[in-house]
Amino acid sequence: MARLHISIWRRRRREQLTWTVPDIPLEDALPFEADQELWQALRELPRKQRTVLVLRFYEQLTDSERHHILNWPWVGTPGQYTPDNEPSFEEILDAETGQVSKALVRPGEEDVRCGVTTCTGRRSDGSFFHRLRDGSSEQDLPERTLGLAFDRFATVHLHPGRGQVLLDLTTGRSGDLGLRPDAEGQVSSIQPGIDPYDRLVAYELEGRYVIIDLARIR
After folding, report:
1. CA 156, CA 172: separation in Å to the nearest integer?
2. pLDDT < 50: residue spans in the chain
3. pLDDT of 8
4. Which residues make beta-bridge pairs with 154?
5. N or C terminus of the chain with fewer C-beta within 10 Å?
6. Phi, psi of 173 (to 5 degrees)
7. What is the pTM for the complete model shown?
8. CA atoms of 28 and 105, how far apart (whole Å)
9. Alpha carbon distances (Å) from 143 to 89, 146, 156, 159
């Protein structure tokens, strides 16, 4: 936020060249005191509302209400779950520097979900993969994954009756979440969130409440 404030301060004080001398002096858009009050007010807003305001009015981004924070300063749109099978977070923006990162999506690929560094999805032949955003380091996945947290964790439904596991894409390790179909054949579905603040995976299991802190897994 401090770096963003400095960049805004510099933009407002940039010299403006003109052929004629103006009749009245140019002044800052905001006095220093008001500037401080504005940023204090922004800091008190919920994180999502604060991001919308900064992106829309300071960074001049359209549709800022659709932008999501993946891991500040990286923001992107559309969201994690897309309506028309669009690639999720195919293009993301560094809100501080203006750098844009566009993920490689090959023809025929579906269910592509990306984070800041990693993407998962399904190839045109029906097989599943995970790789870096630039298309490198591609590896096979045994099944379709759900969610993508910390560019590292996803869940995988095993064959019917075998429940769901939490998969670490970085190490290849996995852990059984203990979920099994009920008497009607229904099983809970756990999807780790892509928001870095959603570090906890929580679900009910046999009358107990299970909480997994993804940020503590090494």
Report:
1. 12
2. 1-6, 8-17, 19, 21, 24-31, 63-65
3. 45
4. 167
5. C
6. -80, 155
7. 0.66
8. 44
9. 21, 10, 6, 9
| Helices marked H in 75-197 | none
What is the pLDDT, as a whole number, of residue 171? 92
Distance separating alpha carbons of residues 14 and 11, to the nearest angstrom: 5
Tokens 């579905």 map to which residue? Answer: 189
Q: Report yes or no: 163 and 179 within 8 Å, Cβ to Cβ.
A: yes
Amino acid at 35: D
Q: Torsion-angle region of residue 60: left (phi > 0), alpha (psi -120 to 50) or beta?
A: left
Asked whether the beta carbons of 143 and 122 are under 8 A apart, the reply is no
CA 8 centroid distance within chain: 24
Per residue in 81-108, pLDDT (tens digit) is: 666 778 888 889 887 788 889 999 999 9
pLDDT at 85: 75
Q: What is the pLDDT of residue 82?
A: 67
What's the rounded Cα separation, in Å, for the pair 98 and 95? 6
Per the structure block, which two tokens stand in for 152? Answer: 């590292």
Give residue for tokens 């002096």: 25
- Residue corresponding to tokens 């923001």: 75
Give residues with Cβ within 8 angstroms of 44, minimum separation 6. none
